[in-house]
Specification:
By secondary structure, this protein is an alpha/beta fold. The protein has helices at 26-36, 70-83, 135-148, 170-175, 185-195, 217-222, 225-233, and strands at residues 19-23, 38-44, 51-56, 59-65, 88-97, 107-115, 152-159, 180-182, 198-208. α2 runs parallel beside α5.
């Protein structure tokens, strides 16, 4: 373990639970702390990336923001896994639908992640690495969706380094059965694999690349609670 606090997380060893539920928006992390945690205590405010630890139905759990994009979540999850002893990270985030059957508010559970990121190059692997979720977490998340009656799909997502893409080629990903576009899964899944830990990405459809429908920033921050129900039910 490296010395803590780290350059990006102001917590000390023991302040963060072994299970962390993360969101890109730190205000969504604050919302989760207020809605789902008993007696939450803030452990981080470095760079405004809020983090809280409390209990949920008697189990100690932390929630934290991770920022936007593969590099940002890559830094935070690397430090959580390697410096703070975290064992499980579940990302709850937003995604744009590529599947015409997925509508606003539906859930996508990311079994794997395609990407245009170069994050895997650091491992110098003799081929192309396929970032995938922890199967036990994925299975439990799917079961939870069934139990709650939430409409969901399990499959591949496309994780892009580029939000405003000159040439998105979304139809090409759609033809390969990719369900949605997001921006964080690969580095989380790779960091989990490299450190021998667990990860899962659960996304709510915030907009549809097929239909052009979209939600507001406020709706994404406070109304996407179904994926949070699922995440907290599987910890």
């Amino acid at each position: 373990m490296a010395k803590t606090p780290t350059p990006h997380i102001g917590a000390r060893m023991g302040d963060i639970a072994e299970t962390v539920i993360m969101a890109g928006d730190p205000l969504r992390a604050k919302f989760m702390a207020e809605k789902f945690l008993e007696n939450p205590v803030q452990f981080n405010n470095v760079r405004g990336m809020l983090g809280f630890t409390g209990t949920h139905k008697g189990k100690r759990v932390s929630v934290m923001g991770h920022g936007m994009g593969i590099p940002s979540i890559g830094i935070y999850t690397y430090e959580l896994y390697n410096f703070y002893g975290v064992k499980t990270i579940i990302r709850v985030g937003s995604a744009g639908s590529l599947d015409p059957e997925l509508r606003l508010g539906d859930i996508v559970i990311a079994m794997g992640s395609c990407t245009n990121s170069n994050y895997a190059a650091q491992y110098e692997l003799p081929g192309t690495y396929a970032p995938i979720a922890d199967f036990e977490l994925l299975r439990r998340a799917a079961d939870a969706c069934e139990k709650f009656g939430y409409h969901y799909k399990v499959g591949n997502v496309f994780s892009s380094d580029i939000f405003y893409n000159e040439n998105p080629h979304n139809d090409s990903w759609q033809k390969m059965g990719v369900l949605a576009v997001e921006m964080e899964a690969p580095s989380l899944y790779m960091n989990a694999a490299r450190s021998g830990n667990r990860a899962l990405v659960i996304c709510t459809i915030s907009d549809s690349i097929v239909t052009g429908e979209e939600t507001t920033a406020e709706e994404r921050q406070t109304s996407f609670t179904h994926m949070m129900d699922v995440a907290f039910s599987i910890i």
